[in-house]
Amino acid sequence: MKTLISPNSFKPEWSFSLLDDAAPANYEIDGEKFSFDPLSADAVVTTETRYQYSDVNVVAIQHALQQTGLKAQPVDVIVTLPISEYLDANNQKNKQNIERKKKM
């Protein structure tokens, strides 16, 4: 097992840097452009519920996988939902939200 913590430095649109040690990583998913930019002040807020189902969340997972240095291979990724999304108003599993997250 390999664990990696990747800071939240994703922003919409691509970035560039003149500094090699702070070079951003650019990604495109379904026609939307994102970048991992450790120097940007425009990072996407990850504490909002909509982030859980967003393309930038998928990009963040891809970026983290690339940072591990693993060769291309099948991997198991475990993701979570905030408790407010995992449970419904009756404190039961919110199957719709769980399935929505699985489809990402």
TrEMBL record:
Coiled-coil intervals in this record? none
InterPro entries listed in its UniProt record: ATPase_NBD, ParM/StbA_N
All copies of domain Plasmid segregation protein ParM/StbA N-terminal, residue ranges: 1-103
**Keywords per UniProt:** Plasmid
Q: Which SUPFAM superfamilies match?
A: Actin-like ATPase domain
Q: What is this protein called?
A: Recombinase
Higher taxonomy: Bacteria, Pseudomonadati, Pseudomonadota, Gammaproteobacteria, Enterobacterales
